[in-house]
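Why do we care about 3D structure at all? Because function follows from shape, and shape follows, mostly, from sequence. That is the central idea of this module. The next example makes it concrete: a single protein chain, its amino acid sequence, and then its structure expressed as tokens.
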Amino acid sequence: MAEDLQIATGTKQEMYEILLPQIKALIDGETDLVANLANIAAALKEQFGWLWVGFYLVKNDELVLGPFQGPVACTRIKKGRGVCGSSWQQAQTLIVPDVAKFPGHIACSSLSVSEIVLPIIRNNEVIGVLDVDSEKPDLFDETDKKYLEQIVGYIDYSS
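And the structure:
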């Protein structure tokens, strides 16, 4: 696939439905995990214009910053800390309409207002998370959860 992204307009669902096959084509055949995570983050940031889109990978009992798009970020997060650490600990997607109300929220950026974090699970183990932040309150919903979980499912962690 050419490294051009067709930016979609329309409803959130329509945007995801046009974006997903593009992401799939972009990473199919590429075996480098970092390259694929970088392109996924870039594609999501380009399509939706969110504040921050990126990955944290589990290394030595903590989440370590991986490829991302947006302002500088926290480098390491302990299990159970903040939204990312909680998603890792619970092995489930967390949608946070207002991060200021999330117990133990880690403010990597003061601009972040709402967040969605999706665990990347392989062989019944969380190996990382996809983290998305917005400067708008209550931005993420079940539509985001559905499609972002599909995208997380595309990631081949064996490389």
